[in-house]
Write a sequence for this structure.
């Protein structure tokens, strides 16, 4: 018997910079992603380069009708996408929005409504307009708060009644680890002072809270969530020092949710700032703004890590921006991300116990090097035999069901990359997540034709049964 509630929002999640392409069409300005041809691997370039796949994406800007029809065929109840900030305000600091950009998302919403798919929209998914990064220094600058809230108010008004679920910043805690991608700060992390970094964090938190306030004022039906990277951290040994290290490093993740949910800075973060010699510029207006708390907490979950008091004594593992000590009990993906389905149940219970706010899993999936093969039974003659992805998602969803049975209130689950897209961290197409294969290669070649993978029908059946087809 399924534990998934009626009305559970099954679907998939994407980001504009990884799917849309058309970087110079429809009046769009440049974003920071347009000068990141290698993802996180190298510093940003001065101008867009032809080898940057994100400039081309998977051409969703022109294929959204067909792609949304495929999502509907799978039975999606919701689709998470982001609005490209620089499509609405090309430089970021304009007073008047770009009508062509607004009209594009009107058309996307038309298609979703036609298929009865609930939109879940991220305002800022690692897509700060490049003009704001280079002219204002990104989120280090307090002026960014006004630019962001003006953008938020614009789209809240434009799409009033059409979008009910909103996320402010994607993986907001990532700014501590990658200040350019997550904060539009074009200074290497190693050269950025702790004071500059945490002031930028503060500006984003205030902007998020003010956007939440504006959303509620414009439409009381709006539901606004924060979005964080969720990474359970286990002490590598039972030694209390290792357990304390795990707890203290978890605090850097909890802090963002604590502030969004509770409306003030937690004591452990204030202590950390004191010990780092950081004195933030926090005004009384900022403190008042932070009291505008979120309606739900959303998160990405891909892997877990271990922590140690002496981490140099252990090997380290890769991960979604945040790494840690490798867990010898777990296997890893082709990109070194350790696979831990039970960790998702732990996160769900942990977050629910901590915040008592509805939760939403808005990213979870497996990046793999899929191989397109001939299949005479497939309508288009080809498929991908991705049993490894089916196994990964099944095992994680079984644990989601267990967490719901534990009493966790969960709004929905959107897999990362329901259609193959350009990787944020590596800027590759070969790191594929989708149920739909897109014929585009790392060098940009390919027909862009879409093919259904084996997992397409599997996920369709999971949704249709509301989780009853999952194998425990």
């Amino acid at each position: 018997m399924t534990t998934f509630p009626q009305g559970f929002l099954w679907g998939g999640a994407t980001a504009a910079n990884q799917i849309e392409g058309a970087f110079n069409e429809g009046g769009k300005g440049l974003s920071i992603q347009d000068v990141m041809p290698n993802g996180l691997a190298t510093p940003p370039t001065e101008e867009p380069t032809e080898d940057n796949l994100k400039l081309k994406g998977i051409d969703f800007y022109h294929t959204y009708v067909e792609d949304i029809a495929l999502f509907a065929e799978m039975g999606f109840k919701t689709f998470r996408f982001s609005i490209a900030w620089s499509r609405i305000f090309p430089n970021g600091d304009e007073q008047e929005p770009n009508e062509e950009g607004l009209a594009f998302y009107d058309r996307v919403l038309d298609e979703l409504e036609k298929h009865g798919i609930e939109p879940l929209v991220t305002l800022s998914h690692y897509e700060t307009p490049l003009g704001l990064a280079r002219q204002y220094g990104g989120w280090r600058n307090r002026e960014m708060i006004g630019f962001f809230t003006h953008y938020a108010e614009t789209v809240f008004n434009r799409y009033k009644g059409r979008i009910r679920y909103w996320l402010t910043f994607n993986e907001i805690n990532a700014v501590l680890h990658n200040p350019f991608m997550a904060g539009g700060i074009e200074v290497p992390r190693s050269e950025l002072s702790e004071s500059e970094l945490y002031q930028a964090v503060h500006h984003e938190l205030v902007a998020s809270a003010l956007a939440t306030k504006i959303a509620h004022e414009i439409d009381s039906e709006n539901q606004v969530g924060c979005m964080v990277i969720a990474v359970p951290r286990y002490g590598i040994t039972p030694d209390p020092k290792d357990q304390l290290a795990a707890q203290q490093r978890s605090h850097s993740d909890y802090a963002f949710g604590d502030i969004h949910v509770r409306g003030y800075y937690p004591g452990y973060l204030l202590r950390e700032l004191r010990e780092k010699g950081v004195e933030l510029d926090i005004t009384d207006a900022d403190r008042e703004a932070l009291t505008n708390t979120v309606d739900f907490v959303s998160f990405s979950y891909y892997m877990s890590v271990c922590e140690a008091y002496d981490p140099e004594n252990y090997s380290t593992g890769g991960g979604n921006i945040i790494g840690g000590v490798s867990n010898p009990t777990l296997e890893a993906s082709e990109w070194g991300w350790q696979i831990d389905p039970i960790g998702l149940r732990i996160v769900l219970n942990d977050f629910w116990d901590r915040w008592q706010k509805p939760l939403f899993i808005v990213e979870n999936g497996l990046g793999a090097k899929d191989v397109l093969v001939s299949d005479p039974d497939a309508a288009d003659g080809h498929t991908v035999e991705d049993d490894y992805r089916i196994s990964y998602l099944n095992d994680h969803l079984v644990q989601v069901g267990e967490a719901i049975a534990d009493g966790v209130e969960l709004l929905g689950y959107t897999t990362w990359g329901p259609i193959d897209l350009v990787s944020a961290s590596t800027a590759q197409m070969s790191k594929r997540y989708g149920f739909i294969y897109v014929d585009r290669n790392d060098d940009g070649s390919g027909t862009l034709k879409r093919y259904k993978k084996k997992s397409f029908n599997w996920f369709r059946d999971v949704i249709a049964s509301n989780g009853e087809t999952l194998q425990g």
The chain has 14 helices and 16 strands.
